[in-house]
Amino acid sequence: MNKETRMTAPPSQERKIVKVPELFPDLIAKHAFAGRFVHYDETDSPWVPFGENAAIKHLLFDTRHNIYSNILWMKGPSVVGTHKHRGYVVMMCLEGSVHYLEYDWLATPGCFIYETPGEAHTLVTDHPDGCKLFGWMQGPNEFYDSDGNMVMTADVWWFMDHYESYCRANDIPINPQLYL
Fold it and tell me: What residues contact residue 147 under an 8 Å CB cut-off, 6+ apart?
């Protein structure tokens, strides 16, 4: 019998939940964290102001790995100041367009951006409607003034405080689904 060894499509057309064998179901049930779902509307996570012309919708905080995920909304032509990543960054442009002053590319909807630790750059949107960027970041970001002096560090704890402080000040319930 000749058996296909390369999958070309999912092997089932049925819409049913399949019980998959698992060697360690008790350990997984005891120690694993369930997946998370955060709705795009503001019920699950509000747009929290980030400077004068931007806001952040927080999606996930993982304190064990210093990982945080969010959508950055630059509401019109604007700049997020020069910053250096001390961890990796994965971003996807969702709306509008954005670029870094230090590079020659322009991200538009669907474009993928990956940044490695140690890179410093200045995020700019010249688009009349600004941009929205989905981000998955690990490690701290150091922000610098126009003279190259470090002015602040933002890590998972800073982003958690950014979210929680805003929620408390605006009587918005803190969503436990955002935390691993």
Answer: none
